[in-house]
């Protein structure tokens, strides 16, 4: 595949991906995930209780939910905080529900016990693919938090059944490409977001033509790109989770180095 993209990547090539763990010391698990210039802090916190609706309906096990926000300085022009409008905007609400669905798909809530896991995803810098970075990093933060519960003897068995990740694919200048940045996303004729388990199953596929249509062959090509990207992300997720259990160096120093790139 020849290089046709503005940043020199091949059509099937991910942006540089990195995970820096333990960036939020008070969280049970946290990571700064970078997809190129898109950077999201994902954290997992544990509440030793369950929502009232679970108690009322006598639902066994625990719960996992997510919140997503873009910080005011994450985009070129300042983005107002949701609190200034008095409500969560529709996009943020849709994305945080997607994150929650993706992570619950690979979590055995009964094994979690009577507790709630909160996954918070805060976008520091947006350059396309914030929702895919949030899901991928959120899974790493969740795994780190659950490892901590296991180490503390608070869990009898590991609730995470497998890893889950997400990646974008689209049609840009007539060609299917993987992991769109903002420039590509802005000009894409078709845009897909694909959530997959490490076992290769689909959790969710979001796709649409942007004032355009797409063929079955193009859709198959985009899904094939997403499958390739997901397999690569899982390898990086596993490395990040293992590295978090064996911390080396200062996370703040690693954070500074990441922004110096």
CATH top level label: Alpha Beta
For the sheet with most strands, the description reads:
5 strands, mixed
- Determine the fraction of residues in helical runs and give it as a percent range: 25-40%
CATH topology: Ribosomal Protein S5, domain 2
Structural class determined from secondary elements? alpha+beta
Which regions have little confidence, pLDDT < 50, spanning 5+ residues? 248-256
Q: How would you describe the shape?
A: globular
N-to-C series of helices and strands = EEEHEHHHEHEEHEEHH
Total strand count, please? 9
Strand content: 25-35%
- Largest beta sheet: what is the strand line-up? 1-2-3-5-4
What does this structure look like?
This protein has a single domain, classed as 2-Layer Sandwich (Ribosomal Protein S5, domain 2). With 261 residues, it is of the alpha+beta class. It has helices at 52-56, 82-85, 90-104, 109-112, 130-151, 182-187, 216-245, 251-260, and strands at 17-21, 29-35, 38-47, 63-70, 116-125, 164-172, 175-178, 190-197, 202-209. 37% of the residues lie in helices and 26% in strands. Helix 3 (90-104) crosses helix 5 and helix 5 (130-151) packs parallel to helix 7. It has a five-stranded mixed β-sheet with strand order 1-2-3-5-4, sandwiched between helices.
List the helices and strands and how they pair.
Elements: E1 17-21, E2 29-35, E3 38-47, H1 52-56, E4 63-70, H2 82-85, H3 90-104, H4 109-112, E5 116-125, H5 130-151, E6 164-172, E7 175-178, H6 182-187, E8 190-197, E9 202-209, H7 216-245, H8 251-260
Parallel strand pairs: 4-5
Antiparallel strand pairs: 1-2, 2-3, 3-5, 6-7, 6-8, 8-9
Helix pairs in contact: 3-5, 5-7
């Amino acid at each position: 595949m020849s290089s046709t993209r503005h940043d020199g990547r091949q059509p099937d090539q991910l942006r540089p991906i990195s995970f820096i763990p333990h960036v939020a010391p008070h969280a049970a698990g946290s990571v700064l995930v970078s997809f190129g210039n898109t950077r999201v802090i994902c954290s997992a916190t544990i509440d030793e209780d369950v929502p009232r609706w679970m108690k009322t309906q006598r639902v066994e096990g625990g719960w996992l939910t997510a919140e997503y926000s873009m910080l005011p300085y994450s985009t070129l022009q300042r983005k107002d905080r949701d609190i200034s409008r008095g409500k969560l905007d529709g996009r943020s609400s849709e994305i945080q529900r997607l994150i929650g669905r993706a992570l619950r798909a690979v979590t055995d809530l009964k094994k979690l016990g009577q507790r709630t896991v909160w996954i918070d995803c805060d976008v520091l810098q947006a350059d396309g693919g914030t929702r895919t970075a949030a899901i991928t990093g959120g899974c790493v933060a969740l795994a780190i938090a659950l490892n901590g519960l296991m180490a503390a003897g608070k869990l009898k068995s590991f609730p995470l059944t497998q890893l889950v990740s997400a990646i974008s694919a689209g049609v840009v200048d007539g060609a299917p490409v993987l992991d769109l940045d903002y420039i590509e996303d802005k000009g894409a004729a078709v845009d897909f977001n694909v959530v997959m388990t490490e076992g290769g199953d689909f959790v969710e596929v979001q796709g649409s033509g942007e004032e355009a249509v797409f063929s079955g062959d193009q859709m198959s090509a985009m899904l094939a790109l997403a499958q390739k990207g997901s397999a690569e992300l899982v390898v990086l997720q596993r490395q990040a989770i293992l590295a978090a259990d064996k911390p080396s160096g200062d996370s703040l120093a690693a954070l500074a180095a990441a922004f110096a790139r």
